[in-house]
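Summary of Year 1 activities. Much of the first year was spent building the evaluation harness for sequence design. The harness presents a backbone, in tokenized form, and records the residue chosen at every position. We chose the following record to illustrate the format because it has been used consistently in internal testing since the harness was completed.
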């Protein structure tokens, strides 16, 4: 097993990750900030499960074994950020120093992106629903940086990046998502309406009396 495989992301998928010029430029800018959350491209409210998933994706992307996107400096920065944010005590100290607050890592509120809450997709419809749901939660938790990379989004949902191609086309055509200037995913107003309508329908289905109440 290579070191690339040992970080927990399939080398087959990692070898296909190719960065466009705009995406690469955007990542260079985020790395230059030395903000660990921006280096891992996550919100300060991210829970430990999401941190682990994103780390595996970025470590595989920047590992020097990856001939297409390997970058030793980026890999070191990702590892340094992960070492701090994956340790509750060090993360608390970092949050206090950089963000001016120190919430315990386990108390961070946006747990909607955890393994326990996201079902394993079994169809393309499941994948589409999870894409807009994850982007919706990401928009709420980090409104100033609502985008997610293809590789990060795939890791959170638990699919291969290639499996998102049909969902990407469909959701773009429906107007539920758009691609940012750096080719990352973000939800639209129509996507927010779709998610919230689905959530209301789900609540009404589990509580018929609620559906009968006047709006």
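For this record, the design step produced the sequence shown next.
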């Amino acid at each position: 097993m290579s070191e690339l495989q040992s970080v927990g992301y399939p080398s087959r998928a990692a070898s296909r990750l190719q960065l466009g010029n705009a995406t690469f430029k955007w990542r260079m800018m985020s790395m230059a900030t030395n903000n660990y959350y921006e280096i891992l491209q996550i919100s300060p409210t991210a829970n430990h499960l999401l941190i682990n998933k994103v780390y595996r994706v970025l470590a595989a992307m920047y590992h020097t074994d990856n001939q297409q996107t390997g970058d030793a400096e980026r890999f070191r920065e990702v590892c340094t950020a992960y070492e701090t944010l994956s340790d509750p005590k060090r993360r608390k100290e970092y949050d206090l120093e950089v963000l001016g607050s120190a919430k315990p890592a386990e108390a961070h509120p946006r747990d909607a992106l955890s393994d326990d809450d996201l079902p394993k997709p079994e169809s393309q419809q499941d994948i589409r629903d999870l894409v807009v749901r994850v982007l919706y939660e990401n928009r709420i938790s980090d409104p100033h940086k609502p985008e997610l990379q293809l590789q990060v989004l795939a890791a959170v949902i638990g699919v291969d990046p290639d499996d998102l191609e049909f969902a990407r086309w469909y959701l773009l055509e429906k107007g539920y998502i758009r691609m940012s200037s750096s080719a990352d995913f973000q939800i639209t107003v129509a996507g927010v309406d779709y998610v919230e309508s689905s959530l209301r329908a789900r609540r009404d289905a589990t509580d018929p009396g609620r559906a009968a109440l006047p709006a």
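The chain has twelve helices and two strands. Quantitative recovery figures across the full test set are reported in Table 2.
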